């Protein structure tokens, strides 16, 4: 019987269409296929009995496991070490740009001694809702056909004999030192012939994939103190981008809980304007202009599609469509009994005013550092800025997508200010005309934030109008250049955030409040907020503290440098995995901390 592995026990591979999560024990326990937002084929992480998996493991009791990436690549090695021998699985997905995607390759090699392996390929199509049939083509090939609406057909090819029973594929084989076995799981495409020479294809695609990722990594312009972790985070963000559309998912998974046994289990396999915009900041800062351009083309299409100002949605499917209806898969028990498991996301039709600021900020950076935007794109964007000018005073659900009703959230007002400010800057850079009221409204928001959200008793900017609590989203105030990082009002706010939300070096996004959230239960510390906190400390000149907290946080990455959304009380990873927000926050914090450390180093200051 399979057991639930900790979320942090997984590495990921991907082809810029989707990803697969591979455990340290050699099992693929989560994969949506062939795209990020396709139904799952393997989902044992969400139901160990019903979900499906693709496991390759030694038939040994006493064995140690080690997992690592080949440096500067997304090619994953899972190593098995025992007294009988040493073996490893090389897992990768040839990427879309060169191979068209839709293939998983698993190469098993015995390095030393001798080892016997068992293979179990147990697909469960359409979120484990659809039955399937299996056909034995020959000793080395099985065909799995979904009988559901997805009509997905998969082919498993192997260099060792395969058999099947009860709809699943099996194999057992023994390898001595120097021996190899190859497995290819692919979508059957009637327009292209199958692969004739499996060994040659695996050999060529492995080296092509290694070279693809190494060449991509080499384009990164970061050469600072934390190169390895920054490059790994960049590689993770790249894995979450769609080559076909240019859109970026918030995370490639759904249903992984923010609290074990709790109800906060969401689907993140969509493109949030906010998350994707933040991702573009990070990629532009690292020199990745191609990805920024692809995303901007996707955004420009959305601005053409929305019809009228104010209809920019906070999230979209990869292709820009809006079919995001939230459904509960009540037949799945959920990760460690965390139910319900949801697909779709009911927050898609919420009003979240902050998305306009995040989008305009990313366009501003793109226009300044990558490529000037077109006048037509500017016209669409200026309509959005006009809408913000007219609607910034509306209550909304805010960045954390609360489900307890709208509030006048500080963060939303901040980002409305950003939307207008960056709109004015873009127009100024191009000498585009702007309506006279833009600057007036921007300044009105500035004064409203200082007057309505400053609490004299707390000596802090509060979460929403009338609140007596702070919010970690406020950490962006100096990062978006709304306030100086050394302004006394900001420093006292930072102290209040430290008192209320910081646990050791880790940061809660806010203190749970059922009335505001509309949800029961709690959650872990929010890793992106921890990196925002580090960046605020660095910009405020608290470099020793910032460096210590940053490097402590690096110690919470999993064994291959990946982060989920949150960290639990025991340092366990919680929420969807890996999380773009966390990795882009790491990149931004590393860049800011490097910059501040270099400033002080140049001045001869000891830090």
From TrEMBL:
<dbReference type="Pfam" id="PF00723">
    <property type="entry name" value="Glyco_hydro_15"/>
</dbReference>
<feature type="domain" description="Trehalase-like N-terminal">
    <location>
        <begin position="5"/>
        <end position="144"/>
    </location>
</feature>
<dbReference type="GO" id="GO:0004553">
    <property type="term" value="F:hydrolase activity, hydrolyzing O-glycosyl compounds"/>
</dbReference>
<dbReference type="InterPro" id="IPR045582">
    <property type="entry name" value="Trehalase-like_N"/>
</dbReference>
<feature type="domain" description="GH15-like">
    <location>
        <begin position="228"/>
        <end position="590"/>
    </location>
</feature>
<dbReference type="InterPro" id="IPR012341">
    <property type="entry name" value="6hp_glycosidase-like_sf"/>
</dbReference>
<dbReference type="GO" id="GO:0005975">
    <property type="term" value="P:carbohydrate metabolic process"/>
</dbReference>
<protein>
    <submittedName>
        <fullName>Glucoamylase (Glucan-1,4-alpha-glucosidase), GH15 family</fullName>
    </submittedName>
</protein>
<dbReference type="InterPro" id="IPR011613">
    <property type="entry name" value="GH15-like"/>
</dbReference>
<dbReference type="Pfam" id="PF19291">
    <property type="entry name" value="TREH_N"/>
</dbReference>
<dbReference type="InterPro" id="IPR008928">
    <property type="entry name" value="6-hairpin_glycosidase_sf"/>
</dbReference>
